[in-house]
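Methods — Computational structure assignment.
A single polypeptide chain was analysed. Its primary sequence is given first, followed by the predicted tertiary structure written as structure tokens.
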Amino acid sequence: MKRRHLLSLASAPLLAACATPTVPTVAPGEAALNAAPPAPAASGASALPPPPPREWRAAWIATVANIDWPSKPGLSAEAQQAEIRQLCDTAVSVGLNALILQVRTSTDALYESKLEPWSEYLTGTQGQHPGYDPLAVWLAECRKRGLELHAWFNPYRSRHSTAKSPVAATHVSRTHPEWVKSYGDQLWMDPGEPAAAEHTLAVVRDLLSRYAVDGVHIDDYFYPYPIQDPATKQEVDFPDEPSWQKYRAGGGSLARNDWRRYNVNTLVQRLYALAHEVRPGTRVGISPFGMPQPGMRPPGISGFSQYDKLYADVELWLREGWMDYLAPQLYWPRAQTAQAFEPLLQAWRSLNPLGRPIHVGLFTSRINDTDRSWQPDEVLAQIDIIRRVSPGSGHIHFSMAALSQNRKGIADALRTQSYAKP
């Protein structure tokens, strides 16, 4: 995922915000989705007891680079399925009620797909069938345990820096090389290529039409995090000149950064409408970088601007309701004042006029064996803040490995303290 960038990005210089591009303001079906529920009928003298408290407790299952599952590429189908069962058992024993499984790491698939090749993180070879359908097994095992399962897609990345296998003949970099750009040590589909966006939407539609997942989830990788030229130390611009020139030749009038934001805005809006069209009741979640854009931040908060660098106008998406939950990655300790946890949570709540649930992303994997490790108390204290500031919402742990390995006793602490009550 994106976590290795965070400490350096937090101190990146601020940039001036650009004008918000114009996009359609209401997604198809938005009015119905936002309609207030009918008022309950009068119940007479004996009122029903209040419902039990509901808190969404989730963890990301990262498959890229085998972060969480499978533990390494090339395991037998039986061994991979045993790991699925063990992770689901751990989730239940700790006290979680949802898992977010990465099913598309880099225009690949961890499920049966005719649109993209099998992920190399399963067998070690991209395009090689693992001998079973992983997503079907994940769904079945989650259903047995009462766990929600959300399918996590990366919308644009096409090859990760950890990839070792040759790309399959059916990979988009081979079938449509005109969509794919090299940026640093990775490949990315160009968000400015309309056909590339159509392909991503087709992938989501295909999965939702065949798998009864509870949600669709995308993270903070829209345009890639910027890299520097090693020689000049200057930031390298994303190489989208051909698609930019096509846009201009077609009469487009937006400035380049606004055009990039428009590309992402359009994908997010269409993805939200598509998910509710294909599988009504599906929840669409987005987990962006944890800081709002400059000008919308609390006093004293500073750092990287996803609005200016990833071209992600998350505030617009919240205003328009193009998601069913927001999971901002608040991956900093409480004492880090420039990225202070509670003020950032309050800021996202203030930017949420439609009252979408905010399920905070927690950096639980910072509990590790390094000298920069967090202690479990940091995560438990952040959960306490969420409950106090945003009662009845929830949170997501990045990532499941920290819990399955019970690093420094974090799983035990959650089970006996934060999650002592269901």
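Note: The longest strand covers residues 98-104.
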